[in-house]
Here is the input.
Amino acid sequence: MSRDVYLDNAAATPIAKEVKKEMDRGMALYGNPSSYNDIGREARKALEEARLKVARFLGAHSQEVVFTSSGTEANNLAIRGVLGSLASKSEIITTPIEHPSVLESIKNQVQGRTLYLRVDKHGLIDPEDLRKKLTSKTVFVSVMYANNEIGTIEPIREISRIIKEIKNTKYDIRNTIYPLFHVDACQAAGYLDINVNRLGVDLLTFNGTKIYGPRGIGVLYVRRGVKLEPQTSGGDQEFGLRAGTENLPAILGLAKAVELVKHRMFNTKETKLRDYFIKQLQIKLPEAVLNGSVGNLRLANNVSISFPDLSSENILLELDKYGIYAGSGSACTARSVEPSHVLKAIEARPRYINGTIRFSLGRQTTKKDIDYVLKVLPKIISDLKKRYKKAGN
Here is the structure.
């Protein structure tokens, strides 16, 4: 019997009922937070209370929290805001498996030199490779905390320690000391510790979509002393970094979402389901290949698996027929016909690269859901193989 099984939480999570309630409260606060009247001041008070909640979640100061429209915009503001005024001889270090909003921002902004850290077959960087590539010309390092496609978790604290060695000085809040360290933590925020002080980062990005919060809201943490060039003009909202009236309902919803994350941090339910799912897939579909790292170096909700000589699009369409909703990689490039840049970077075998499915579990996922997928998926793969063979492909 068909059932609805949502396994695309890495693209977007369902909005929690507590979040919806808080967003409704924000809808009723119709004043403009920048207006100098009682209704505006009421909205401003709610906005700053929400900012404080997000700051506490990050272990930051309220003045270090900038609200944006998305994780993508937050990444753009971090990268373009730093790199826009730097010399053309500057060097940037990143990885080839970053989110497109990072890779494209760097590509379009930097006139200098961009260096890419090597990643192994699991998507892990080698910290020693970073140590070798860092020079006095390095101004910016951007490394994703947890990969959105294959779930691999990078050693952010170790990276931070290496970067601080080249700074060779204590952080001075009056001046920007390079290189700056930026982390895209959109996938990590619901599962990993993103306390900015423990991580040792200068800039950090996350959004509401991945933590059971609203769409259309993101956060950029900017450590005190880091200077950014605004990317939108026409107002002094968000400390002069992002002009435009704040999206108060979404901001209040995000603040509630991070409160819920704190209570569920390090929950082992999804990890156990993930490991059960992977083990059973390897038994039932031994020809399939798991992408990414394993154990504690993998996001608790990520199962990325590739099938030889098949198309992700066809597999997803067949899964849809059974009420199983998964993804093929980054939702921001889901309509692209090009092979995943992440899978190419980890040197996935050509036969497998086009047949990748990402199952991403959520709070609502049950063992019955996984067992249903395990029952349906082998049949889908078998039928597709016969269809391809019959067609002469």
Summary: The domain at 5-13+267-390 is CATH 3.90.1150.10 (Aspartate Aminotransferase, domain 1).
